[in-house]
Design a protein that fits this description.
The structure is a single chain. Helix content is about 15%, strand content about 35%. It is an alpha+beta fold. Strands 1, 4, 5, 7, 10 and 12 form a six-stranded antiparallel β-sheet that branches.
Length: about 220
């Protein structure tokens, strides 16, 4: 019974820690329908609305933005004519929040750019790498039916300087220029979130152990 009580305490601690996470801004592209470079307002999250815009930038004037099937949903944010330095950008306020992170899903066509860097900024002009040279898969492709979890990226934490800011910016920036200008890259289910305090679970678990020892 004592072991069971300890395990239950640890499970409860994990549940409490997870509950502290918050979704600040969430882009699903289901209502924004991104057939242009944007801005496209976040549809969900505490800061949903025009104050949390998503946008695209391409140096090439011939870029076509479109909304093919997302990752198990009807819409995504897609574009072609990629060159090194082109990006998707996501912005929101983090006033009142700390421990900021971003997670997203991303896929490409067989000729779309594969090598990207996640960058972040608190002023919209000076960006630093948060996840360099990550690979975007071309398969499995997306459809409106079954989501493909292997095309999604787990939460990447931002520096403490992103806490409690009027605006923070995240960019998914291409590191290459594909030989085929028609190659596409698309994103979906982008979330700027808070992550639980790493020490919370440990402290709560420690409290459970202390309580168990006292009962002995």
């Amino acid at each position: 019974m004592k072991v069971t009580s300890l395990i239950a305490g640890l499970v409860l601690a994990a549940s409490i820690s997870t509950a502290r996470a918050a979704i600040i801004a969430h882009w699903t592209f289901e209502t924004s329908v991104p057939t242009t470079a944007g801005p496209h307002a976040a549809e969900a999250g505490d800061n949903a609305g025009a104050g949390s815009p998503a946008s695209g930038f391409h140096a090439g004037a011939a870029t076509v933005y479109s909304n093919p099937a997302g990752n198990g949903s009807a819409e995504s944010f897609s574009s072609n004519t990629w060159a090194t330095g082109d990006y998707y950008q996501f912005q929101t306020s983090t006033v009142g929040y700390s421990l900021i992170a971003i997670e997203w899903c991303q896929v490409r066509s067989s000729t779309g750019p594969a090598n990207f860097t996640l960058e972040g900024s608190t002023d919209g002009s000076t960006f630093s790498p948060l996840l360099a040279n990550y690979t975007v898969l071309a398969s499995p492709s997306w459809s409106s039916g079954t989501p493909q979890p292997t095309t999604c990226f787990a939460a990447v934490a931002a520096p403490a300087s992103f806490d409690n800011q009027a605006a923070v910016y995240f960019r998914l920036t291409s590191n290459e220029t594909p030989s085929n200008a028609g190659g596409t890259n698309r994103v979906d289910d982008v979330k700027i979130i808070t992550i639980p305090e790493p020490t919370s679970l440990g402290l709560l678990a420690f409290g459970a152990v202390v309580a168990l020892r006292r009962r002995r």
